[in-house]
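User: Sequence for Glyoxalase family protein below. Tokens please.
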Amino acid sequence: MLDQIKGLHHVTSMAKDARQNNAFFTGTLGLRRVKKTVNFDAPDVYHLYYGDETGTPGSVMTYFPFPNIGKGRSGVGEVGSTVYSVPEGSLGYWESRLAERKVAGLKREESFGEKRLRFEGPDGDGFALAEAKGDARAPWSGSGVPADEAIRGFHSATLRLKDGGATGELLKFMGYEEVDTSGNIKRLAVKNGNGADFIDIETSPGAPFADLGAGSVHHIAFAVENRARQLEVRKALMDTGYQVTPVIDRDYFWAIYFRTPGGVLFEVSTNEPGFDRDEDTAHLGEALKLPKQHAHLRPYLEKHLQPLGD
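Assistant: Structure tokens for Glyoxalase family protein:
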């Protein structure tokens, strides 16, 4: 069993409208946009990152807003919901805030003994806020959300699968342990993590397979401290039979990717070098940053990318 993985690093999803996406995460949820850059493979499309003050691993939601993308269809073989951690007693505040902003899908619930508020993102994305005990992570304080209610980072993510057995074994190999079961959902946790420590596996044998589109999670990333730890994970996965990509430089972290037995795309990302490698912390996410191979496109991109309205 591996011990290098320290919880979630980021979750990357698809969206249709960049301005709407930016307004939701920075305005409605009160997160900080820590990077405004472009998709490595489609530079005419933004890659937007939202998190805490510095984009700490375990706090960052990222989006590819494709203007002409169709709506995704939920099903198995995907990340069904991404859950944020908020302080105990704060769900009343959030329920009022989200209702005032006409956020869809609001529903109070309880899961594994924790109070939750389920809601949808602008494209029908599945989210929830969970009241977590003892989460000492500092929130981003530059938004209009009071610090006593603000999001601390990720709590967990739910994998919706037709059969969770093989993916559960993979996660155990990656250092997770099964800690609880509720109906058709198994909860796994990583020890000594970064706060974003839980993965829930929801098994739905009769559900159709998901169809990727706006509102869908493209991939989910797990955090390792550095490149040396990442190479150890890569070798262990390949020795076990997984087809893992070479290490890819994503400017703000190094990444490897592989497909899980349940169909979900996993990434393992380094905590280094971080989002302040090309911007001062005080000004993260303000300027358009381009990968060096796309630097020559700046005049075109600055003219054609949708203004974010901030």
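The domain at 8-304 is CATH 3.10.180.10 (2,3-Dihydroxybiphenyl 1,2-Dioxygenase; domain 1).
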